[in-house]
Amino acid sequence: MGNPANVPAGRYAKQSLEYLKLWQQAEPLLAMANNVRSALVLVERGEAKLGIVYKTDAEISKKVKIVATFPTDSHKPITYPMELVKGNATPAAKAFYEYLQHDEAKAIFKQYGFGSVN
Question: Given this structure, which CATH class describes domain 8-74?
Answer without folding.
Answer: alpha beta
